User: What shape does this take?
Amino acid sequence: MSSIPIEHGLVLSAILFAIGLIGVLTRRNIVFVLMSLEIMLNASGLAFIVAASRWGHAEGQVMFLMILTLAAAEVAVGLGLIIQMFRQFKTIDINVLSEMKG
Amino acid sequence: MQEFIWLLPSFPLAGFLILVLTSGTLSRITVAVIGAGSIGLSFLVASIIAVQFLGSGDDYYIKEVWAWMSVGGFSPGFSFYLDGLSLVMMLIITGVGFLIHLYATGYMADDPSYSRFFSYMNLFIAAMLMLVLGDNLVLLYLGWEGVGLCSYLLIGFWYTKPENGYAARKAFVVTRVGDTSMAIGLFLLFAQLGTLNIQDMLHVAEVEWNIGSGLAIATTMLLLGGAVGKSAQLPLQTWLPDAMAGPTPISALIHAATMVTAGVYLIARTHVLFQLAPSVQLLVAWIGLITLLMAGFTALTQSDIKRILAFSTVSQIGYMFLGLGVGAWSAAIFHLMTHAFFKALLFLASGTVILSMHHEQSIFKMGGLRKALPVSFASFLIGSLALTAFPYTSGYFSKDEILLAALELDGPGIFLWAGGVLGAFFTGIYTFRLFFVVFFGETSGHPPEKEVGGWHMNGPLIVLMVLSIFGGFISIPVDAVFGHGESHEEHHVSALVHGFMVAVPLLGILVSYLCFHKKVFSIEKLMSYSISRRLHKFWHSGWGMDWLYDRVFVFPFLWLSRINHADLVDRFYGLIVEVSKSANKMVVKSQTGYLRWYAFIMALGLVALLLLGIIL
Amino acid sequence: MIVLFYIAAVVAVIATIAVILQTNIVHALLYMVVSLLAIAVIFYVLGAPFAAVLEAIVYAGAIMVLFLFVIMMLNLGQHTRNEEKSWLTPRGWIGPSILSGILLAQLLSVMADLDQDIIPKQVGVMEVSALLFGPYVLAVELASILLLAGLVAAYHLAKPK
Assistant: This one.
């Protein structure tokens, strides 16, 4: 048993993605929301690696690198926003940011 | 120097721009120098160009400045066309215009909107020069509408009084009727002849159209519509008397000397077309005749000094139309020029009278002013003599030529002549009625202490006096323009007819003298008969034309707008607005402002898309 | 090696569930690090050592440390933990869980008919780098610009007024 069915890898990434989505939709603490987003990004990166490894290609890793860069930039901006938000509202409850209500 | 002809409208335009952009921040002296000086410069250039043009002996001169636009086969150039006709017009506009500007620097001295006044005046001169110098009908139309705009702005110059605004709107709307007709005429001409360049167009028309062809009649009728609107002839004459609401120099410049004669210029410029449609040309003569008689009767009954002069202007332009109608093109233009001199003189002098009387305009509140206002008295005397065609004044020569040309016309010529002579009789009466009432008789009310004046007001009056007396000896160089359309033979009429024509205006003056100075016939007694009272009322209202137009056009329009108050068409568009508003109200509810809600909707969308992918 | 994959997968799933259930934010962060390290192990098993190393260094190292800094800066204490507890009502979990469950079911049904096996083969730094600086050099440049933009934006946003 030296091989892994490709579904198993993809299922793992789908499960992680779903967990991340639950986190994004449930949590009110904005730091948790950001972390859940990281989980989702990471899950998609995992899917790329799994697919690439089926064919023995390096492209999947390149894509993972791109996602990594994206995540890094996103976290930098997102955390900056959180700091600014905390300064303004003295809370990290995402529900206070509802001023754009139509 | 002729290639600098584009400078002519540029000076006033530059003056307009300077005055408008500084918007009243300049001192009065500067404004006066810019306002009048720009016209003076234009006159100087015009004079030099005139001397060179006449010296060169050419028939015409064309200066193309730039191509205005080029759409398909339609490419009117921004070019100037100079020939005898536009030369005369150009000199009248800049010359008389300069004198009136100079006068206005004194007349308007106390007005708070000094700068605005001169900016409009300069714009007017620029547009008017464009009108007469443009070599195609599009450029002419640009100037045509430009002078209409300036006329509107200047009639409503004292806009704080609602009746002035009303008069301005009336002038604008009534002339717009004529302008629309003229625009349609231009479209028709372009569609049929393929060009709007005036000279090319006339050549093509001469070759392609037969005399009396339907197209010629249609286009000339449409052009005539524009001309009667601008020149206040029947049936669009009602705006001009109300236009006297503007400052008096405006009445002199726009509503006597230049703009209202634009219709005469238009017909003279396109006279070849009118020759191709003899029936329309005859109609021009009849319009002129009827207008001049109606305006003459009306002038007899007016009491406002400016309104009398306004109706007299309508009447004199009627003479010009009569001249055009009988084919006496150069006589009509000649009368246009002499009329510009003596009517500008009369209006400016009436301005001095009005200003000296502290803005009193009713002639019956004046009287015995000949001692108090010597310059105005002299001006009025000379202007009135010229207006009534007293022998050897300027008006005598021009009116004489028109009437003799009418007499020589076969068929209806004798009626046109008789009507014209009758009109001259009434001209004598109403002109000297004004003269005797204002300057002779009892001094009534508050006589003015002194005459308003100064060199810049009296100077133009003196120059215009000289021109009104001797203007008749000027020979205008329009033979080359009308050469092929006019008979050059001397008028052969018996001494009896000639004597009669001289005597009739003098008879009018005599009647006026007896009635209004010596009071041999009592006007009061005449007015005691009900028929004469009724006639007086009828004529006073300008033959009830305003009343008629109110009934025929204004009231039905108001009625229509009243029943369509809610505007049916607008309802439909209102419905669209209402629907989108309520749709918006519904959609807005989904916009809660909660980030998690948006994320939830996105996830829902993802699920839905995947579902679609699985099913399909 | 294959067993390692399944162990790591189970660890990753449990750790990730723990992340979203935690009320103490620092604990959640530590679980997140565990989850990321488990995924790094999976990367290694699947023959992507370069990605595994980057996952450990950049994700579990740099990004998580950044989170930690921010949490320290915000100085959230016991008060926040109580608040957090009051926010997490059982009812709040139902809707997102159902939605995510449906999504997961859809993804699984899509993958159901895949029948291919992975035979892990090492793809090292050499191959990845050859690709990165060969055909994907433009993507690398774009990524660098993105990072620069992120840097400038983060600096500007976090700057005290």
Q: What stands out?
A: Chain C has two domains: 1-88, 124-161. The helical segments of chain C are 2-21, 25-45, 49-74, 78-87, 90-111, 125-132, 137-158. Residues 49-74 of chain C form the longest helix (26 residues). Chain C has seven helices and one strand.
